[in-house]
Design a protein that fits this description.
709 residues, alpha/beta, 4-stranded mixed β-sheet, 25 helices
Length: 709
């Protein structure tokens, strides 16, 4: 699911964006856990602030609170506590035997101290940036001080006020305002460790803060591992995973501004950081959803094994997000088998394989890869790309598609996944999800390279919004025109039953292409526009490979792997892009070798007829009828040769645009050749390398070939 983190998490610049209820501090999942008391004596649940919750969630150790809280303007601010001597109450909390009576009594007291303006008001306002804190006041001294003293805290955030014992230092006041505002990014913290007092004296430097965060996460992870009550363990894991993801996002963030980086690079850095923020926000929602689903599904039967499986799967997902800077999300739903709709391990493996074989710059341009059940309008669709979001549906995980059953080509065997296992290599079967994801990224790439895409369409002769006048001029009957205009994307589903596109004899149409397409007298193939209802597209017949022009069929079932590419200009580009990544040698055969062979064959056929015509003319007496027949035959052969040459040029232009302007494999080839030259590789070998690299599509494939020299 995709959410706006600025509004749902209260970070919008409009103070009215999120209405927060008046609550005594921020509650978290861990704050709702009941502390464990002595055997035979129950413990009453009490209201906990997030700075106290950490001291109650486990019996083994307390978690320190070294996390700073950060705002878009102003410095980091840290909380303060009176922890000298470790009071009996807090010591009891650490041991897990805290009974809560003192705190309950203190909280129920009249806390009416002296209402006044918030201490350090100006400084706190600056630190909180756009957050409106005008509604928060302070009660200093009086019974408020007594209540706070009995709980061994300096101040407490209650309702719309902050109630310190005496006017507190800046960091203590800011800390409690933070609780009232609920703007912290930290979901778990503790208020018990004496070492925290040293941190609270001022803003810690980055090195100390990072080390403290690491220690806190390690302690919380240890608490998760050492908790054996399943329900308790599940909630603790949820809080840990949220913090873990958030901390990783912060530590891997790109520099927002640097005098040595270009404006374009800084723009990219900002975008990548935006992806990280979105990922953190979505992950928190997903964790809550996963926990709620598991608690309901396993009510009364939840085991540690269930939690460990969830923990392992979400960590797998997180590591892929971290490595490739993508946001893997899923719709809040369940499959027909009743299981949670989520990324599976096998699905994550295929996603990583697809990403690993792509250029990194193509991945960084996309924000989210979402998991959904089906497209309501196109129930057989495998995926969809729109506005930076790639959606993968259930059919997209199972296939089959054009290259399902084919084998990976020029796939680097040294590529490892996030768990250190080998990814798909040369000779491994191409999986459905790999194809679908690469295909949808192809759509993203043509959107991000509009000028290159325009030239690519021109190379194949694609026309948009074809007029009825043009179709009538091409000799297309009125009834056929109406069929083209009324067709509503019926063949947009890549996994549609192929038999519906075949003749009764089980073969494709006369020229190996879909029967529903219409060929005009102008040599154009007319097809419905699946992206614009009622519109018609046209493309040069033969500009896209087919069985009839010598395209390589699917290795497993012999099907036409270019079938979907011929449906429209966008999917033509996306299918070509997919082939370039997964089957570059087949692509070179289809766009370079097959057209060249066709030209040679047609040239030979023409020359044979030309020789026969010359022989017929040399006869004495000559046969006028034979000469006329041979002249007609020669013209037909010449027309076919001209058509083959035209298609060859069109396919070579498509090949070069994708290879050079999208993947930049030409530059990678030159760079690799220079490296080989510096190594002292023989000129003959370098030429051999260049010839082989000319059939590779991506820099990664070029480098793999170069590694052999």
């Amino acid at each position: 699911m995709r959410r706006d983190w600025r509004t749902e998490r209260g970070h919008g610049h409009d103070s009215n964006t999120v209405q927060r209820s008046a609550s005594p501090g921020k509650q978290t999942l861990t704050s709702l856990l009941r502390p464990t008391g002595p055997v035979g004596k129950s413990v009453q649940p009490t209201r906990l602030h997030d700075h106290e919750a950490g001291s109650r969630v486990g019996a083994n150790s307390a978690t320190t609170d070294p996390f700073g809280f950060y705002f878009e303007t102003g410095a980091a601010v840290q909380s303060s506590s009176d922890v000298s001597g470790q009071s009996d109450v807090l010591a009891a909390a650490r041991s897990g035997s805290f009974q809560g009576d003192l705190e309950v009594a203190a909280e129920q007291r009249d806390v009416s101290g002296h209402a006044s303006i918030l201490p350090h008001d100006d400084a706190i306002r600056r630190s909180f940036g756009w957050h409106d804190i005008s509604g928060i006041s302070a009660d200093i001294g009086g019974t408020a001080a007594e209540a706070a003293s009995s709980m061994n805290v300096v101040a407490d955030a209650i309702d719309d006020g902050v109630e310190p014992q005496q006017e507190p230092e800046l960091h203590a006041a800011a800390h409690d305002v933070r609780h009232r505002m609920g703007v912290t990014e930290v979901e778990v913290s503790a208020h018990t460790d004496a070492t925290h007092a040293g941190h609270a004296k001022g803003v810690p430097n980055a090195e100390r803060r990072d080390e403290a965060k690491k220690q806190s996460l390690e302690e919380l992870k240890s608490r998760v591992d050492n908790t054996h009550d399943p329900e308790r363990k599940l909630k603790l894991w949820g809080e840990y995973h949220k913090l873990h993801v958030e901390n990783d996002a912060k530590t891997t963030a790109d520099v927002r501004w640097s005098p040595i980086e270009s404006n374009e690079q800084q723009r990219k850095n900002l975008y990548k950081n935006k992806v990280r923020n979105e990922t953190v926000s979505d992950t928190k929602d997903e964790v809550d959803d996963e926990i709620a689903f598991l608690e309901k599904q396993k009510a009364g039967t939840l085991t540690e094994a269930d939690i460990k499986e969830l923990e392992r799967r979400k960590e797998h997902e997180h590591q892929i997000e971290l490595k490739y800077n993508v946001n893997l999300t899923n719709k809040e739903d369940k499959n027909t088998d009743g299981q949670k709709l989520a990324w599976t391990d096998s699905g994550l493996d295929e996603i990583e394989s697809a990403l690993a074989h792509m250029p990194k710059e193509h991945i960084n341009g996309n924000m989210e890869i979402n998991r959904d059940i089906a497209d309501k309008e196109r129930p057989l669709a495998g995926g969809k790309y729109r506005d930076g979001v790639i959606t993968i549906y259930n059919p997209g995980v199972t296939g089959p598609y054009g290259h399902t059953g084919d084998l990976h080509e020029l796939a680097d065997p040294k590529l490892k996944d996030v768990n250190g296992q080998q990814l798909s290599k040369t000779g491994d079967e191409i999986k459905p999800l790999e194809q679908v994801l690469n295909h949808e990224f192809g759509h993203a790439v043509h959107d991000q390279n509009s000028e290159v895409f325009r030239r690519y369409q021109a190379a194949a002769g694609w026309q948009s919004d074809v007029s009825e006048k043009q179709m009538r001029k091409a000799g297309i009957p009125a009834a056929a025109i109406e069929v083209l205009k009324k067709d509503k994307d019926k063949d947009k589903d890549k996994d549609k039953d192929k038999d519906k596109d075949k003749d009764k004899d089980g073969k494709d149409g006369k020229d190996g292409k879909k029967d529903k397409d219409i060929i005009g007298k102008d040599g154009k193939r007319y097809v419905p526009d699946p992206y614009n209802e009622g519109k018609v597209l046209a493309v040069d017949d033969g500009a896209i490979p087919s069985d009839a022009t010598g395209a390589t069929p699917n290795l497993k079932d012999g099907s036409d792997t270019w079938l979907y590419a011929r449906t429209n200009h966008k999917d033509h580009f996306a299918e070509h892009y997919t082939k370039a990544i997964n089957a570059p040698e087949k692509l070179a055969k289809d766009l370079i070798d097959a057209p060249a062979k066709r030209v040679i064959d047609r040239t030979t056929a023409r020359d044979v007829v030309a020789t026969r015509l010359a022989t017929a003319r040399a006869k004495s007496p000559s046969d006028p009828k034979e000469i006329v027949e041979l002249q007609t035959s020669l013209k037909n052969e010449q027309d076919q040769l001209d058509d083959a040459i035209r298609d060859q040029k069109a396919q070579k232009r498509q090949y070069d645009i994708m290879r050079k302007d999208i993947f930049h494999a030409d530059k990678a080839t030159s760079a690799a050749a220079n490296r080989l030259r510096k190594k002292g590789v023989d000129a003959t070998k370098i030429k051999e390398f260049r010839d082989r690299a000319a059939r590779a599509q991506t820099p990664q494939q070029v480098d793999l070939i170069a590694s052999e020299y």
